[in-house]
Design goal:
The complex is a heterodimer of chains A (about 110) and B (about 110). Chain A has no helices and ten strands. Chain A has about 110 residues and is mostly beta strands. Chain B is mainly β. In chain B, strands 2, 4, 5, 9, 10 and 11 form a six-stranded mixed sheet that branches. The termini of chain B are far apart. The chains are: A mainly beta (about 110), B mainly beta (about 110). Chains A and B meet through strand 4, strand 5 and strand 9 of A and strand 5 and strand 10 of B.
């Protein structure tokens, strides 16, 4: 079956611009996660959605970052007024639910802020 | 704050040899995950360890979990070149398996 998909695969943007990153989770997975992978910080949790519950935004690094999940499926991560330190690979994962369920990761979006 | 430490960070080994990667974590958790990442690729799930004493094996890789020692190991038996990748352990905070806290990763190179 189809795995987690993300788009675009690569994004180059100028400092100060806004970007939107998209994630399509595995069908039927109620939980969706965003992580960021960068050289300096490793893999960091950003935000978690579970069903219709309020998202856990505890990992978002600043108020320039936001995410939404429409209809319990597709999610969009938005970064406003991008900075060079936002350059990283943004990974999306989904799982059947929270709890012990395994998280399946998408291929990631490589964001470069120039 | 949950901290996860992996060692070694870099591992170069000969084909056919055995080695162990260690993953220590700082607070109580009974949920530990191992992932593999090839260069330029995403994370591939290898093992999910959910209880003290859990041991799982797949091919030349075997993972174990000791929740009392807050330690997981990933043992590589008779390494082959195809195992070259970066391996991450990840731990979920107690009471939840929502966000994962990852170790820094172990970059494994298996030499012919």
């Amino acid at each position: 079956g189809a795995g987690v998909s993300q788009s675009p695969s690569n994004k180059v943007t100028e400092k100060g611009k806004d970007v939107e990153l998209r994630c399509d989770p595995i069908s039927g997975h109620t939980a969706l996660y965003w992580y960021r992978q960068s050289l300096g910080q490793g893999l960091e949790f950003l935000i978690y959605f579970q069903g219709n519950s309020a998202p856990d935004k505890s990992g978002l690094p600043s108020d320039r970052f936001s995410a939404e999940r429409t209809g319990g499926s597709v999610s969009t991560l938005t970064i406003q007024r991008t900075q060079q330190e936002d350059s990283a690979v943004y990974l999306c994962a989904s799982s059947l639910g929270g709890g012990t369920y395994e998280q399946y990761f998408g291929p990631g979006t490589r964001l470069t802020v120039t | 704050e949950l901290k996860v430490e992996q060692n070694p960070l870099f591992l170069s080994m000969q084909e056919g040899k055995n080695y162990t990667i260690y993953c220590n974590y700082s607070t109580t958790s009974d949920r530990l995950y191992w992932y593999r990442q090839d260069p330029g690729k995403s994370l591939e799930s290898l093992f999910v360890l959910l209880s003290n004493g859990a041991v799982k094996q797949e091919g030349r890789l075997m993972a174990s979990l000791d929740t009392k020692a807050r330690l997981s190991t990933l043992h590589i038996t008779a390494a082959v070149h195809d195992l070259s990748a970066t391996y991450f352990c990840a731990v979920a905070p107690p009471g939840s398996a929502r966000q994962l806290t990852f170790g820094s990763g172990t970059q494994l190179t298996v030499l012919p």
